[in-house]
Structures are given as C-alpha cells and as structure tokens.
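Protein in question kept underneath.
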Amino acid sequence: MSTRLTIIAFEAEFRRYRKLSEGAIEQLSWDQLRQSLDKETNSIAVIMKHVGGNLRSRWTDALTTDGEKPWRNRDTEFIDDFADRAALMATWNAGWSVVQSQLATFTDEDLSRTLTIRGEPHTLALALTRSVSHTAYHAGQIVQISRVLASRAGIEWKTLTVARGKSAVYNTQMGYNADAPPR
C-alpha cells in the first residue's frame, strides 16, 4: 500500500507559501507590484516571474528530465516585461499548476527516487525540500516588500498570519490551551 503522508505535507507547505504570497500581492496595485525598493532589489512582479519559472522548470517531467529545462532562460525571469497583471498571474499560476499536478502523482515511496537538477542527482525528498525552501524564501520577500510598499502608500496592511499582540486570541480561536497536556 502506498502512502502520501510526507507528500501531503509538502503539498500543504507549498499551498501555505502561495497563500501568503497571494495574500500580500492582493493588497497592492499593479504599479506597486512592479516597484523595486531600490536599484539592487527585485520587484514583486520579478520575484513572482522567477518563482513561476523555477517551479515550472523543476517540476515539468521531474523524474524523467533535468529540472533545469533547455527552454528556461533564468536570466530573463529577472526582467519585468509584463503587459498587465493578468500576464503576471498567468506566469505565476503556470508554475504552481505544474508543481501541484506533479505532487499529485507522487507517493512517499517515490521520495528515494533520483532526479537531476543541472546534472546533479537529487532524491525526490531533497528536490522537494529545496524547492519548498526556495519558494518560502521568495514568499518572505514578497510579503516583506508588500508591507513596505503598503506602508509607504498609507495602505492599512491586512495581517496574513497571527497579528502582533494577538497570540492569545488566536490560540483561543484555534482551541489551543497551553496548560492542557499534549494530545
């Protein structure tokens, strides 16, 4: 019998970072998504393009082709050439669609299988760990840049996680009691 407990955990983590990213970008205008904090940082649109391209390349036919596809041009991922928000979202969603579709085909028994990224062998477990970590890194950038841009524009930020100073309220809402014995 094949199991999916670990794969389900990876799916949940990918979903979590996508949700955080999208919760942040929904609070910004199209112009803000294209704005860099300074000349040395990427805009949110560029980060989204990179994440979408990375996920699409890594997870298209992951077990049968190298994760760095010949059709991927990583350097162009750092050029904002989007006509509009819909084009940006199409690139972002294309990457997410591939990783979600591929994850749906894996079982925990596949985690020891070998795949390659830039010719380097990885177990599926390592490739998933690297991919979710890479995605989380960029999700953090998206959220932080969004908060700065919202603040600069006088936009009231809608908190995406537990609000500052509201941990006890959150724990109560979640049914958590710190004094109760572990389940």
Notes: The CA atoms of residues 33 and 111 lie 36 Å apart. The mean pLDDT is 96.
